[in-house]
C-alpha cells in the first residue's frame, strides 16, 4: 500500500466524528472487503487499528459501543479470517455480553456455518461455555481435524472431554452411523475420512500433542495393543523372525493385567498353538484360569500338577537353526562390554576419542508399536576394531543427573560427532540422531556440527547390484533381506540375524542374544567399511572410496543420495576371476551335461533351477562354511557359483575362470540365465528334467 493512500485513510478518520461507526457503515455498504488477501477494505481496517492506538481517546464504551458490537457481529460470518482479529480488537468484542456472543455463534452453527462458528468461538474464547462434542462433530465429518485441535488447544478439560468422546466412538459396540445420521446433507461431508482407523490416529495425535494420559482412551489403546499382538504373532509364527524369549517379553508387556487383552491373547494362542502351548503362555502371562476355555484350563492344571514346561508351539523350532546362516561377530565375547557406571564409561571414551580412530555407531530403543511418544534410546553401541562398548543410556543419564552433571553424556557425544579426526560409521544416522535428541534434548544441534561421518545408508545406494534379496524365498524360512542386513550379506557374505531387532531394549538385564545382536549391529559397520575401502571396484564403487566418503561426506546424512554416483562396471553377475576381455573369444558351447557347478549356500534356489535344466549341481548345506565350495571345486573339477564377500575369498583358491559371482538381487531364473550365457551353456528340450530333482 502506498504511503499516499495510508495518509489519505488516516486523514479521513480524523475528519469523522465517529470513526468506528464510519468504518462499520462502509463495511455494511460494500463487498470489496470480503475477498481474500489485502483488499482496500483490509487496508482501511488495519490502518484504523493503528490510528486508534495513536489516538486512545477514540474507543467508545457504554450503550453506543454495544450497538456497534451488535452490528459488527452480524457481518463477522462473512468476514475473511485475516480481518477477524482487527475487527475484534477495534470493537472490543471481548467485552461484549457473553450470552449475546454465544447466541451469535449458535446462530451461525444452526445455519450450517460450522467452520465459521468454531473460528469465531476460538477468537472470542467461548469454548468453555459450549458443548465440545456438538461443536467438533461436523468439523470432523468435514475432515477439519486441525481446526478441532485448535478449538481445544488452550483448554485441558475440553481436550479430555473430546478424547473421551472420540474413544467412545471407537468402541467395539458403538455404531458410527449414529453420529453421521443427523448430518447426511452436510456440505463437504467426507465419510471416508470418518471411521475408526482415522479417529484412532487422531486420538493418538491429540494424546501426544496435549500430553494426556493414554489411560483416558481405553478403547483406542486396547485396539492398538491388539494390533500389536497380531503383529507379534505374525513375526513369531509366520515370518519366524523373533526368538521365543524376545516374543515373550513383548507379549507380557503388551498384555499386562488387562483382562480384555488376556482374552484376545488366549484366542490368538489357540489359533497358532495347541492347547498345551496356550496353557503355558497363559500361565506365563498370569491369565486368570477362570477366563480360559476348558481345554486350556485342563492343560494349565496339568502344568501345575506336574510342573512341566513344554515348548509353546507346533511351529518349527526356529531358534535351533544353525547360527552359521548369519553374520558372526569375529571378536571374543569378553571383548563386549556392557557399561552402566561412569567410571567404566570414562575408560571407554578414552579409547574412542583417539585421533584416527574408526568407530561403528548404532543405537537401540524399545519399539513403540504405534503407541504415544517418541522412541528414547536405551542402548548406544560403539564398536572399535578389537572391542565393542554397549552404553546403558537410561542408567548413565540417571546417574549423571543424580550427581548434578547431566551435561556429561551430551558433552562426550558431541565431542565424538564433531571431531573430524575420528571416522564415525553408521547406517541411517539421521534417524538415530533424532531418537538421541528425544532422549537428551541437549544434543539437538549435534547433526549440524557433525564431521568425519560415513552413513552407509548412502553408500548402499551406490553398491552395484544391491536390491532386496530373494535368495531365501523358496526356503519359506525368512523374508527377503533388506537394509543393513542386505548390505552385510552383499559385502560380507551372510546377512545379519535380525530376530532380536524388535527387542524390549529397556528391560534389564539384557539377554545374551540381545547383547550379541547389539554388538554385531555396530561391529559389522567396521567390516563393511574396511571391505569396501580395500576393494571398491568389486562392488561397483570408485577407487577413491575412502577419500570420497570421509572427505566429501555431507554433514547432514539425511538424504539417501548424498554421494555422487561413481561410474560403475557391469553388474556383479558379470564378475569372474580372469574375466574375458572384449577382444577374447567366448568359450566353446557346451551342453548342461558337461557343465558341473557347486553352489554356495546363499544360492540354493539357483542350484535347483540349474539342476532342472540338466546341469550337474552340488549344493552347500546351510551350516557349511563357504570354503567347502573351494574344496569340492578342486576335487571334482566344478565351477563355484557364489556372491558378495565369499567371491573375494574363493576366487583365489581355484583356477582362473572357475569362480563366478552371481547377482543376489535377481530371481533364480535370471541368475541361471546369467550363468548359462557366461559359460555358453546350450540347453536343449531333452536336457530339461534330465537329472533327478
UniProtKB/TrEMBL annotation:
Keywords: Exonuclease, Hydrolase, Nuclease. This is MUT7 Exonuclease. Residues 336-537 form the 3'-5' exonuclease domain. GO terms for molecular function: 3'-5' exonuclease activity; nucleic acid binding. It comes from the Eukaryota. Signal peptide: none annotated. Residues 553-563 have a biased composition (Basic residues). InterPro entries: 3'-5'_exonuclease_dom, Exonuclease_MUT-7-like, Mut-7_DEDDy_dom, Mut7-C_RNAse_dom, RNaseH-like_sf, RNaseH_sf. One of its GO terms (biological process) is nucleobase-containing compound metabolic process. The keyword Nuclease applies. Residues 551-585 are annotated as: Disordered. It holds the Pfam family DNA_pol_A_exo1. PANTHER family: 3'-5' EXONUCLEASE DOMAIN-CONTAINING PROTEIN, EXONUCLEASE MUT-7 HOMOLOG. CDD domains: mut-7_like_exo.
